Amino acid sequence: MSLRELARVVQTSEVTVRRDVRALEAEGLLDRRHGGAVLPGGFTRESGFPQKSHLATAEKTAIADLAAGLVEEGEAIVVGAGTTTQELARRLARVPGLTVVTNSLLVAQALAHANRVEVVMTGGTLRGSNYALVGSGAEQSLQGLRVSKAFLSGSGLTAERGLSTSNMLSSSVDRALVQAAAEVVVLADHTKLGTDTMFQTVPTELITRLVTDDPPPHDDRAATELQALADQGVQIVVAGANGAAGGEPGPAAAPRQRGLPGPRRGHPPATLRPAAGHGEGRVADLRRR
């Protein structure tokens, strides 16, 4: 429920509700989300596209701006389903010579009129709640595919378990997308950090980069999870909700790349170069000095 709805039900102010929600989360009775609260543990029914599209919109825009800077002209990539990846697709329309493989109708729609971008759709059965193609048809169409990067979002992200989602069919297709890519880039706003849902899609050791927004100062759970992910070698790219840099560029945690040699700890990391016109970001090690 949103804070506004909670305040209406209990007939008090949103300020009071926000304080009470924080106290209830400390007791393990609920989990806070951006602008509201959910049942604890994250093992809940997945929200549909209309609900998701109105959550953390500024953060998703900032994340999409930075993620687009990771894509170069002429690359072949895969893009999974989700509201954040849809925002990314809108920005990829300006990248010439790009080939995008996707199981998302929303991603394909965002790129439909980009005359310099080739869009390849998977097969599969349409899942109406998030406009994605799932099932054995989608998974089989990805066999034998090899691309440079996979861009995925999900319902939750933890250092212990990696990226997860609430739907079994979606998780299977996401795993097939990961198998096709040399690097895995996860797009997740701070409200998903520390949330663990039913079906694992990408274990932490296969995540090359996480593109996220800067958690609010009081969000200790998200900050702790970012630290833990960096400690496990995930490269963290952070944006402010307004698209501005989250700070000066700093040393990056060495990325892990499945199947390809990557920088080791102690070696200079590759530089991330945002695309022209996109918000500058910082690559944060996040290890406290």
What keyword list fits this structure?
289 residues; alpha/beta; three-stranded antiparallel beta sheet; 9 helices; 29% helix; globular; disordered C terminus
Total strands: 15
How much of the residues is beta strand, in percent? 15-25%
The tally of helices reads 9
Give the integer mean of the pLDDT values: 80
Report low-confidence residues grouped into runs of 5 or more.
Answer: 49-54, 241-289
Could you characterize what this model shows?
The protein is α/β, with parallel strands linked by helices and 289 residues long. It contains nine helices and 15 strands. It has helices at residues 3-10, 14-26, 49-52, 57-68, 83-92, 105-110, 136-141, 168-179, 220-231; strands at 31-33, 36-38, 76-79, 98-102, 117-121, 125-127, 132-134, 147-152, 156-158, 162-165, 181-187, 199-202, 209-213, 235-239, 282-284. An eight-stranded mixed β-sheet has the order 5-4-3-8-11-13-14-15, sandwiched between helices. Strand 1 (31-33) and strand 2 form a beta hairpin. The longest helix has 13 residues, at 14-26. The chain is globular, with a radius of gyration of 18 Å. Residues 49-54 and 241-289 have low confidence and may be disordered.
